[in-house]
Structure formats: C-alpha cells, structure tokens
Structures
1.
Amino acid sequence: MRQGDALLIVDVQNDFCPGGALAVPGGDEVVPILNRWIEEAQRHNIPIYVTRDWHPARHVSFKERGGPWPPHCVQGTPGAAFHPGLRLPSNVEILSKGYDPDEDHYSAFGGTGLKEKLKQAGIKRLWIGGLTQDYCVRETSLDALREGFEIHVIVHGTRAVNVNPDDGRRALEDIRRAGAILEGGHDIAVGK
C-alpha cells in the first residue's frame, strides 16, 4: 500500500455472516484477513472506507416486495451491525447504501458519494474485500473500474453467496476481465 491508495471493505455485517438472515457460507472467515489489511492501512496512513447495507423495513430487494432476498440489514437492527470481530478504527468512513425503500444498490458507488470522496482524497487505487464476492464486491469493483480507479480485489478477504453454483468464480472472472487485479494470497501487498 502507498499514498494514493484506499482500502474499501464491503458489507461485513452480521446478517451476511453465519446465523444471519442472509448468511454467506464462511462469511465470518473474512474478518481476520480484513483486520490485517486494516492494520496495514493504518500503518501507512491509508484511508479506509466501509460500506453497509442499511435497508428500511420494507426494502424493494426483499421478497415481500418482489425482490430476491429475505429481509436483511434492516436499519438499526443487530443484523445490520458490522461483525463484532471487525476492528474498525475510529476514523473509518462509513458509507450506507440501499437506504431508499424503492432503490437497491449493490455497488458502494450507489448513492453514497464515494466517487467524489475518493477523487477529493486523491485516491487512484482501491483494495477491495468483503461480502459478497458475487454481488456487492463484484458491482463495486466493476463500477470503480468504470470510474477509472485501479482495482485490486483481496480474494481471500471475500466470500460468495453462490445462489447458483460457481457464481463467485464467475464474478471474479468478470472482475478480472474488466481490468482488476485479483490478489490471491493472504499476504498484504506493500509497496507494489
């Protein structure tokens, strides 16, 4: 990591972890990996952005309104809280998405002002991890590439919900084909 970089952690919330309303297999396994990236970002004074689904009780993505998902990450509920093991520093910037009852945003760039914040901060390169590989991480990575950022996906710091078998693998292929770099190891890339 170097100046001009930012770490973006996507939706590591209780409802996406085991026992949650929309549990991702192994969702909690990303926490220690992302904690190491958080520590490294802090060591190098790299800004950290964290997204969260922040849905109202009758969100358009919920099955009761014709969406594909059970109710999850409802504002102010324990399921919407970040995983308790995720060590977020006090200066982290939290970006809420999906808060409009009639709009759904998988991407961290959807209604959050993230593009403007990154440009103002002089960010050129994003390191992205979190949940889920095949939805929010995929859409965030693709949007970031469209906006001209260099993207590194921390593959071991993501997990897929895999509604269909191999959705996660296909998502990573989409991201790579679009121009992102897939970081496959557990190690933190410093000074690349």
2.
Amino acid sequence: MGSLMDVYERLGVRRVVNAVGTVTFLGGSAAAEEVLEAMDEAARGYVNMDELQSRASQLIAEATGAEAGHVTAGAVTGIVLATAACIAGKDPEKTAVLPHSEGLRNEVVLPRMCSSSFNQCFMLGGGRLIFAGTEDSCTEQDLEQMVGERTAAIGLLFFTGTKQGFPLLERAVRVGKRYGIPVIVDAAAELPPEENLKAITAAGTDLVIFSGGKAIQGPNDTGILCGRRDLVEAAAAQASPHAGVGRPMKVSKEQIVGLLTALRLFTAKDFKAEREAWEAKVRCLVQELSGLPGVTARRLFPDASKEYYAQCWPRAQITLDEAALGMMASQVAEQLKAGDPAIYVIVEGRSLVVNPHLLQEGEERLIAERLKALLKATGKS
C-alpha cells in the first residue's frame, strides 16, 4: 500500500510541509489513521442521517458540557445555522423565507473589534449586523446600547484574538442574560488550549461553534455547533437533509463519523506529551540554525495576555539580518514555498516563524536543512 503522499504525486501536486498551523488554505490538519478507517467503514453502508446526528448530539454534549450538539459542514456553516436558529427558531414559515428576514427579529449585535470577513456568515443565516464599540474596545454598555426590539443574538468572532479575550465573552453573556438574547460564539480556532472545549460553554454561551478540521483533527470540512438544546434543534431543523437555509451545506455520514472519532481521540489525548513534542521540534530548529551568519534563532512563546490566546504554543523565530544577507525574510519564505516539498512558514517583519503544531516526524530537520542551504547561498552571493 502506497503512502498518502503518493496520491499527490500521482496528481502532479506538490505536498506541503505545514509550519503555519491549522489554516484552511493548507488543508486544515492531518487526520489520524483511526479517523480515516472509521470514515472508510462509514462509507460502505447506509444510515438514517437524523439518527446519526441525534447520536452525535449526545457525544458532542458529553465532550463539551453543552446540552446538545450538531455536526456541521465546517465551522462557517455553524455560524449560518446558529444565526438562522436565533431568528426563525422552529417556525416553518420563518424558516422558509431565510435568508430574507425583513420583518423578523434579525439583528445580530457584533463587537466591532470582532469584525472580519466571516461577518457574512451571520448574514447568510438572515442576520443584519449591528456593530458595537470600537476596533479596540467594547464595553458592556457598548453592547447594551445596541440591543433593541429586533435583536436576535449577540455574536463574537475570534474573541480570544482580541485584547479583551474572555472578559469580552463575559460581558456579552451578561447582556444576553439580562435581555434574554442568545450569545453565539465562533470558536473555530480557539483550540488549543483544550480547556476551551468546555470553558466557552461553561461561561454561559448559548451557541458555540468549533472547527472539526483544526486542532480536533477531524475532516477539514466539518464543524461542531453546540449549546442550548432548543437552539441546536432549531439549527438542525434548518440543515441537511431538511429544507432550510442550511440544506446546501451538506455534511456526509462519513464526515460525521470521522468528526466523532476525532473528537473522542482529542478528549483522550495526552496534551502534555504533545506539547513536549512541539518543544523538541523548536529546540531542534533553534540548535540547527543558531550560529549561522546573519541569523538569530530563538524559542518564542507568545504572551497570552497580549497575543492570540487560543494558539499560544512555542514557536521557533528565525530573525534575519536582511542587509547582510541581501534578501528579505519574505523572499526567503517565497523560496521555501517554491521548493518540493513546498515549505510554508509565517513571516513577521524580518523574521520567519515556524509553528511546530502540525509538523510531521522529521520535518523540522527538513526545514532547517533547506533554510541553511538557502541562507548560505544568499550570504555568498
């Protein structure tokens, strides 16, 4: 049996060494063999999709501490369905007109500091966005000021990526409880830390969305919607195989089984050992690259109080003396991409940053060797 890489070779597509992270444009994450086997087995038979989703709801509830759950076609679909559930509930007449929601309670209050290209997902579910606060701050009063008779939900996107983090979530929950308005949290990339799987629901959030294809390492096109039972059931009623705004966003039996298998593995994972493996890869890169002319290599651990809290694992930072080397860090990154396999790293100013999270065995040495060859050649020229 050939390796997984044989598939890409046969297609004539270069494989990638992913030193960036669980980003969609690089395929999310790599699934475990057990996940692939479960998906293969699921593909060989038939099942009532509602029954499968009902069992998924129970398993997701156990893993997240929520009342119920639903497997979606990616985290973005979770936002769409969550919004639709808050606007239409289980009312078939309201469901039938979405995403056209004129005349309904359809406003979603969103902190301006959370605004992103994913705003559109709320709109696809029928939401009309009302922004609160500024790009740098959103107080409880800012949120409360935007709440009105037509408010259907309060939404948060990438909330731990803001400077206000969990306090922002707590403010949104307080306002939501005060006015009886559901709070929707897009937590697609909020793992790790693993505690967030339960902590965000435990904070009082009504609906939480996680990506299935990032840290959980399920199929890249899956997501988890979990929270209040009545809202999750309303979302499920608008999702495939039923008619509703989520009907085109189909999730297959194979994807559901793969996601549930990955979720079980995630909750049982030895996270301490995983972090030690990341540290070992970072140490290797720093040792291999330290001492090269024009290069400074060090372990970088982002400050959770200032940077993206949900993805603060150790990284290797390779800072270049661009003048001495005659090449910018961004140009070196482009040369790494141009090779075979293509190596993708993060560029931050004069530095290349390597995230070890998804590096497979030995790939840290491949990155070091490629960088040494490139930088030595650059220094000579």
3.
Amino acid sequence: MGLLKTSHGEIETPSLVPVATQAVVKTLTSEEAEAAKSQILIANTFHLHLRPGEEIVKSAGGLHKFMNWKRPLMTDSGGFQVFSLGFGHDLQVGKILKYFPSPAKILETKILAGKQPKSIRITDEGVYFRSPLDGRQLFVGPKESIKIQEKLGADIIFTFDECTAPLSSLEYVKHSLRRTHQWAEICLKEKKSKQALFGIVQGSRFLKLRQESAKFINSLGFDGFGIGGDLGQSKETMKKILGWTIPFLDESKPRHLLGIGYLEDMENIIKSGIDLFDCTVPTHYARRGIAFISSGTINLRQSKFLKDKKPLDLKCDCFVCQNYKRNYISHLIKAGETTALKLLTFHNLYFFNSFVEKIREKIKQNKL
C-alpha cells in the first residue's frame, strides 16, 4: 500500500488508471467515472494535441476544469502513438504478442536496425506523423511533448519515448534506447512547470537493455517511473521483464506500468512492485457488449440474455447491478441504444476498481 499525493488529491496505490483518451472515459461523465471508484485518469497527449488542441484546453483552465474532473490526472507523452501508428499498425501487434509467428514469419517481420514504419518517420530529433484526422504532417519530439503536456496541465506527465514493437531486433532496440534516453534528458531540461515528471524505462525483451535503461532513468531524478515498450511474447516474459527492471528503480517513487491491466495480470504485476497501471479493457470490452462478472465475462449481444432476469453480477453493488437486469441491457444493445454502453462501461469500471480495492485490502492485512 502506498499514498501518492498531488495538488488534486491523494491516490491510494496500487491503483488502476482508467483511460480518458480524449479527456473523457468513453460514454461516462466525469462524475460517473468518479462514482465508479476511479481515483485518477490518464488522457492522451497526441489526440488532445490533434483536437481540440492544447491552447484551447489551456484557455479553459487546463484539463481538470475543461473536463470537470476534480481528482488527479495523468497525460501520456505521445510515445505510445510512435508504436500504435507505426510498427504496431504495420504488423498488427500489441505490446504483448497474442501469438508468436513461425520462424519464417519472424524473419519476414523482424524489425531490423534502420527500418522505418510505413506511416511515420522516427528521427533522433523526434517523430513525424500524419494526422489520422486530415492527413497533415505533424512533428512531436521531447520538447514539443513537454510543452503540450504543460499546457494540458495534468498532475503527472511522462517523458517522450519510443515504445518499441515486439519482434524488434537487438540492434534496433539498442539504437531506439539511446534515442529514448536522450529524449528523457531533454524532457527534464525543458520542463518548467511543477507537474510531476515520470521517466520511462524501455529496452524491449532484452535483459541487459532493460537493466541499463532502469539504471539510467533512475539516475536522472525523475518523480516516478513508467515501464513501457513491448513486453515480450507472453505474460511470463512480462513478469521476467518486471523482475529485471524494478530492482533498479528507487522504491520510494511510484512505478507505472503503461498499457497493461487485465484482471488476471493485476496481482502478479502488483506483487512485482507496480503501483499504477492504465488499461482500456473495462471500457473497450463494454463497447463490445461484454460485462466482467465474478465468474468471468458474459456477452450481452447473445440473444439468450433477452430472457435473463438476473443483474449483471449478483455480487456487485454498483448502481447498474442494483437497478437493471441482463435482459434490459441486452435489449438496449440489440436496439443500438447508447445507454447500454454507458451501463456496461460503468459496471466494468466499477468492477475493475473494486477488484484493485480488494487487492489493497489484502495488502493491508498482509495477505499479499
């Protein structure tokens, strides 16, 4: 258990950080996101730079006032978009490979030193993107990322980095890591605000590079740490990577695992020493009609739920489970009503936050 203090309140750790990409948890108001037990949210620097633009957010009094969120906020740096709009898009892979290709496919898709993604261009100064909205060219480097994040005004901000993709070669990751470390130093020099700045550890699935990165980032005096990049071919590899990394990070400072947070991961990553972790799973699954319940998941798009008069989860005390039944929510989904997405999102987020709350209780009782 830990307590992270910010100017917008305290966060009990470990904590899930729900994703509010465009300054909103999709389908929920800020009041509803808080009622679902969210302590802190993370918004996306790249997307808010695209629209409405950081100047508009700043003129509104910063993200907190703009979105009427009174609790702590994070913004990422835009580094994840280097992955998602780059090699992640090209190879159709996530941060952990859901499948590992055959040896022949590995040779075909391996990211070698000097290789560039199709849609973006990565240089030592920063990254050239094409706007997914109108195709115009954009440039974001460490200086630009910090300036944007300062104008957005979140409590916690991150250094600009290259989030490497699975199947990156050792040579590619070595070069990328050198660049990411240079960017981390630039971010520190550029920051003029009182916001907490977290440095990001990279190094892919390579032990020596992960440890080199952890030692280097730890030496720079950041307020906390992000652990980013691809995390190997399995959850076992992810566990190893955390084991290589965390011992070299100051234990008095918070450690955030970027982009990971399935229910089955939570106890393991928390045992490894992670304090904060962001994840789109509860909201993303809700928009597909899937509810998380004590026994697993149910898909409300299935017609059998039109005759099911039970709440989503008999053990859940969220307002959705107290007031609505599966048959009604299933009907709303089939009728294309957006209220279904709101009800499922609220329940899933409440369920995930309650799950982490129980882990915090276990820690208090020395059971974890």
